[in-house]
């Protein structure tokens, strides 16, 4: 699998170099011929734009192959998210409020790959941004979940043990049943110029972290992505961990 990943990575690099030549050449023709007719200019701009889109796609595929072997270390998710907050604040327009919630626990440690987890949050934030053109709320929530004999039926695909529940929620346009059904498939998109890789990449990352993910969404009711990741180590459970603390 690692060799296949390396091979795909090598081809993707070469492919990207070719795309760059196409983009740069189209740009050079545009810049050195300011008197071209409007239609030719439009064609050249199209070549540049589509070339960039293809290059972006190749980068994302490259990301899949680069991370076929995951480098995991202990990550405390609350500080991780807090560190991402500034980047998210700049990413969202001012009419989107960002909330970070957690239960009474002070530590949410998992074993993870920081660059993959960053990608996961950014892909989800990007979807939420697209879903809230008129603004709204982007909520990140952390909670501990213990799967035991009492509730294992509700979490049938998880084995017994402790998990961190990561909730990524928005108050955007939501999804209809058909969209929700296909949302995790690679290349599925309802947007005009998108590659449809965001959620499938998120799903891949969750699986690489031995977790599961759920989508809850309805048209005009916002979207909730819930991810369960195995906790780093067993801790004494805080019995008062019912309510959320809000940090809006
Ligand atoms: N938060 C959300 N709110 C509403 N619809 C969503 C949300 N997240 C995903 N979707 C729907 O699921 C589809 C697939 O999402 P995904 O992130 O995989 O691709 P994309 O956003 O269309 O493209 P890309 O992420 O590659 O730019 C989207 O086109 C959209 O219809
Ligand atoms: Mg997306």
How would you describe what is shown here?
It is a single chain. The protein has 248 residues and is of the alpha+beta class. The protein folds into two domains: 2-66; 73-247, Histidine kinase-like ATPase, C-terminal domain (Heat Shock Protein 90, 2-Layer Sandwich). The chain is 44% helix and 22% strand. It is built from six helices and eight strands; from the N terminus they run H-H-E-H-E-E-H-E-E-H-H-E-E-E. The strands form two sheets. Strands 6-7-5-4-2-8 form a six-stranded mixed sheet, covered by helices on one side. A two-stranded antiparallel ribbon has the order 1-3. A hairpin with a 5-residue loop joins strand 6 (212-217) and strand 7 (223-230). Helix 1 runs antiparallel to helix 2 (38-66), helix 3 (77-91) packs across helix 4 and helix 4 runs antiparallel to helix 6. The model is unreliable at 235-248 (pLDDT under 50). It binds adenosine-5'-triphosphate (ATP) and magnesium ion.
